[in-house]
Amino acid sequence: MKQGTQLDFSGQKIFAGIDVHKNSWKVCIRSEHMELRTFSQYPSAKELSNHLKRNYPSATYQVVYEAGFCGFSHYREFSKEGINCMVVHPADVPTSDKEKQRKPDTVDCRKLGKTLSEGSLKGIFIPGVEQQDDRGIIRFYQQMIKDQTRFKNRIKGWLHFQGIAIAEGKHWSNNFIKWLKGLSLTPMARLHLDLLLQGYGQVRVMVLTATREVRALSRQERHKMEIELIRTIPGIGEITALLCITEIGDINRFKELDSLCDFVGLVPNVHGSGDRDGVLGLTHRAHHQLREKLIEASWRTIRFDPAMTMAFNDYCKRMNKNKAIIKIARKLLNRIRFVMKNQTAYVTAVVN
Description:
Layout: E1 13-20, E2 25-30, E3 35-41, H1 45-55, E4 60-66, H2 73-80, E5 84-88, H3 97-101, H4 105-118, H5 129-161, H6 174-181, H7 187-218, H8 221-230, H9 238-248, H10 257-264, E6 268-273, E7 276-282, H11 288-304, H12 306-316, H13 321-342
Parallel strand pairs: 1-4, 4-5
Antiparallel strand pairs: 1-2, 2-3, 6-7
């Protein structure tokens, strides 16, 4: 009688939890009933795919890793190999206090593998390559805007520290920069200010370049029509419309307004204990760039849309303006959702 050497895992599921790092992966492989092995490997989806197919042929494979620095490149590599991959938000992985205090890579990958096999993980949305790259441009633009603001604040702070009164007139104009360069200072103070101005000048050039690229992106055919529709909503500009399109993506993945508000972060941070329910402001888990832009746009909306003006005034009768504008932002997001979902221009309400 000849010994059988061919393995066949048909009908069985093999799960792999991966703790992803730059130089190595810690991998935990499980079946539906038990842990099989835990090991370290070179950070390669191809290498892990070959390992699974070689050791557990014909099985159904499922792998999971936490979203982080590596983005979605590994997800796409696993998909090319025909392996079902899930990317999860790190905060959505069930964790005990003991695991928080002692957190080696082995614990992390085992935890991912176990929760995946139990079916208690929910993956995040994976954008397409084109959407991801479009996101990258507008996120870079926003980062450059913040860097420019930091340099402005550093220069102003330095002037205050030196006891130099800021000249009257339009700040950050060419005349203002000439005034800064013409100040009578000690050699070291002159060097310090020149370095700050050089940094500001470099960032300003990058902001102008990024602005041109973002506006060029918004005029491309794949975004042009939808941006025009969203801009029919009072208070929404070209940059905000493009941000909504690139970050939200397919609006139909949000079945209700509440789920979209949850994604953006326009929901309260609630802490309940016994008979007490405390509201601790807006949730910290949010899409901060999108939330900031929507709140900023809401301040413009209440000036140009009579219906929003009336709603804001009603809210201000029972709460302060900062809380009222959050409710306006939810209404604004609902209008954006309507326009994107129905591909219909927004019609401004008329108050009689």
